[in-house]
Design a protein that fits this description.
Helix 2 (about 45-55) packs across helix 3 and helix 3 packs across helix 12. A hairpin with a 2-residue loop joins strand 5 (about 225-235) and strand 6. The strands form three sheets. A four-stranded antiparallel beta sheet has the order 4-3-6-5. The chain has a three-stranded antiparallel beta sheet with strand order 2-1-7. It has twelve helices and nine strands. The chain folds into two domains: about 15-145 and about 265-290, no CATH class; about 155-245, Chitinase A, domain 3 (Roll). The longest helix is centred in the first third of the chain and has 23 residues, at about 70-90. The chain is of the alpha+beta class and about 300 residues long.
């Protein structure tokens, strides 16, 4: 059985979902409140989002006047990713039946998920989406085929790796002010291999880089921009330059194998329209991440 992935293209590595989903999760729409998060055709109101943050991030968001900004961003990254995937599949006619959702629910319970958690109202639908992709249903194949051009590239890039987001912002400012990328890489990059080469990473096929780096690079290509950052990863913060755009022949759906879920997660995040109330963060469609908010308030 496929478990819910904890790492996916373009997103931070999150805690294993089964270990932290312990709070309340109420995702029903509230007629008295406007949506604060919209992901394709899915709208979530403020109460729903705060409860998801509490459930997933372990923060008492309902009782506290503020929510820790970084955890908020990480938790909403995850919510956006899975809802975007469900929305993408629905566009191509893949909507889980009640029986399929119930079967997914039973598998999750057998795997140790807590039956009492209100989160189980949503997790089975996500699991059913993964199952449909694993089964290679027609709609999942079509969703990939019609969007494969977004991920079918040889990635020719350079980067500058620094320790903090602030340092990466400073690098971006220097570059936008006319700074020389190669010189800055030699002086500042904490990647000794590419730094000594002026940041050059050469040309590699998709799948060679860590997911968050690759998603940001593909997002920049799709947006027609050549410089993107800061891009967070387990190594620090990257400023990435796209040196050459080289489309390649897409792999077939069957060739993706077990990687099909992650590929479609990346496609979903590049093709869904996402908007957030500024109290909860800002969606960056190029990097494919939620930027941390100024802490949301209770008013």
């Amino acid at each position: 059985m496929k478990r819910l992935p904890s790492v996916f293209p373009g997103r931070r590595a999150l805690r294993p979902i089964a270990a932290t989903l312990a709070g309340a999760l109420l995702l029903a729409a509230c007629a008295s409140e406007s949506p604060v998060v919209s992901i394709g055709d899915t709208d979530l109101d403020r109460a729903a989002v705060l409860e998801w943050i509490e459930a997933r991030g372990g923060i008492a968001a309902i009782d506290e006047p503020t929510v820790e900004a970084q955890t908020t961003a990480e938790v909403l990254d995850e919510l956006v990713a899975y809802e975007a995937l469900v929305d993408l599949l629905a566009e191509y006619g893949v909507v889980a039946s009640d029986a399929e959702v119930e079967a997914a629910r039973n598998r999750l319970l057998d795997a140790g998920f807590d039956e009492a958690s209100p989160a189980m109202g949503r997790l089975p639908r996500w699991q059913a989406a993964f199952d449909a992709i694993d089964a290679g249903v027609a709609g999942a194949r079509t969703a990939y085929a019609e969007n494969a051009h977004l991920v079918a590239h040889e990635l020719c890039t350079s980067h500058i790796l620094v320790s903090t987001e602030g340092d990466a912002v400073d690098v971006m400012d220097l570059l936008e002010g006319g700074g020389d990328f190669a010189e800055l890489a030699l002086q500042l990059s904490q990647d000794p291999g590419s730094g000594s080469q002026g940041g050059d990473l050469g040309c590699v096929p998709t799948g060679a880089f860590i997911p968050v780096f690759e998603r940001a690079t593909l997002g920049a290509i799709a947006a027609g921009v050549s410089l993107v950052g800061p891009v967070p990863s387990q190594f620090g913060f990257h400023v990435i330059r796209i040196d050459e755009v080289s489309p390649t022949e897409p792999a077939s759906f069957d060739e993706l194998g077990a990687g099909a879920v992650n590929v479609l997660l990346g496609i979903a995040s590049m093709t869904r329209e996402v908007s957030l109330d500024s109290r909860f963060g800002t969606w960056d469609p190029v990097v494919g991440l939620v930027s941390p908010p100024a802490a949301p308030s209770e008013d």
